[in-house]
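@channel sequence for tomorrow's demo:
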Amino acid sequence: MNRTFITEIVLRGFGNLQNFKFFFVCICLFIYMITVMGNLIIIFLVSTSYRLRSPMFFFLAHLSFSDVLVTSNVVPVMVNITLADGGTLFLTDCIAQFFFFGALATTECLLLTVMSYDRYLAICSPLHYSTIMDHTLCMYLVVGCWSLGFALTLIPIFLIQTLWFCGPNVIDHFFCDLGPLLELSCSDVSIVKYEVLSLSGLVTIVPFVFIVVTYDYIFITIMKITSTTGRQKTFSTCSSHLAVVCTYYGTLFVIYVVPHKENSMTVNKVLSLMYTVFTPLFNPIIYGLRNQELKMAAQNYLFMCRKLINA
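structure tokens (generated this afternoon):
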């Protein structure tokens, strides 16, 4: 039987917006700019402020960098196809977009896990914290997160390369996510889905369980502190990270772990929009509002800028 293999993918995007698409695009671009600026400010402050030379902020800077890459991988394409009422990508470009999305999502899971381990050492073993969490270990952990994130995502990419894509070539989504992409294949994708589901569980559920366990020990240690002020001060050092973890994993589990076959594609797109556009925005907001050291560093730079302007 003759097969015609597709080379281009058509993304429908949000085709049902009609008269609201310009308003939608403006909102997304505004959020995108705030997200990029906010995370870049965090990276700049951590890189230049001596006050923020600690493992926690070192990991935060890498988390901010991954947030910038995640949203930049999706939002520009989404805006273009929304304005054009659909868009076309080469199949290779579509697979590449999924690869970077999956790699960055995996890296963020690992970075959040490393950050929870850092908070565990700082609170539960404060006397040994500086000895254990030195600069060398921080570098190893960060390099490991980025390397594992990209290496593990190569597995589904290799599996996708074994599939035949012979039509149709239309994805009812605003970016090349794995599920809609596999629906275009005319090969048996059951093995691929099983392998990807197993890998997804490995890189999401295992780190999440590790984070839960570390915070159990953290909360036990905090409750042993006799003074209320001491408990509040100690908890404040990890509350920002805990808020980011809840936001990140909450959206991730709803989209990729919880079965939702009965949900419409519109619901899936809205959930994916929450993860790719809104979740990266929460990182600078949460840390900017709750972390005193970060706020002090930002205020110091604003004060220095005002002095230079008025000089």
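heads up for whoever presents: The chain is about 75% helix and 5% strand.
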